[in-house]
Each structure stands twice: as structure tokens, then as C-alpha cells.
Amino acid sequence: MIHAADVTDSVDSLWGAVFGGSTGFIMLAVYVLVVVALWKVFTKAGYPGILAIIPIVNTIFLVKIAGYSGWMALLYLIPIVNIVFAIIVAVKLGARFGKGGAFSFFLLWLLPFIGYFIIGFGDAKYSRA
Question: Cβ distance 87 to 105 under 8 Å?
């Protein structure tokens, strides 16, 4: 039989493992890297780079840069649909910066922190059409 105290202790140890020690520093470092890369992507697309710092706002503007309405970012809240929509946004975002489908799928959807650096700091040009 599972007691409530056992579940609480398990949850506390999970939070301690995720947000304590070196894991917290790694998560913070990855977040900072993504913000730096998105800052460059946003400025290339004509938006203020500071929007990359705010977590939900950066997703809304990433959807806008991909060519959709900012309201379509609400699709990220629907399970299964969010995966499909994230792939579509990655492919459209890559196309806006002149990148192909394979680049978009692998480096903007699977490994976005690498893909954002490539389009942000590389020679990719943003086009609205």
C-alpha cells in the first residue's frame, strides 16, 4: 500500500534532483543559450530581441515569425496537436530563413538550441513570403 507520505517524499526528492545541484545549473545554462540564439533570430525577423527572454511570449512571437497568427500558439496547449504543430512551425520557420525541411526538422524541432544558433548567427536571411 502506498502512503501519502511516501508520495510526498518522492515528489520532494524529484524536485530536489531537478532544481538542485548541477542539474539546475545545466538547465539555466541551456535556457540562457536558447535566449541568446532566439534574441538573434527575433532581431533578424524585425522583432525586439528582448522578447526572447519571456518564456510564453517567445513562443508566441516564434509562431508569428513562422507566418502564423500569434493566437495559433494556443495549439501548443493541446496534447498530440502540440507535437504536430511544433513540427509545422519548425518547418515554416526554417523556410522563412531559407532552410530546407531536413534542417528544420532535425535542428529546429529536435535540437532547437543548435538550429536557432545557426539561423541567428549564420548568414540566413529572413523573408516574409
Answer: yes
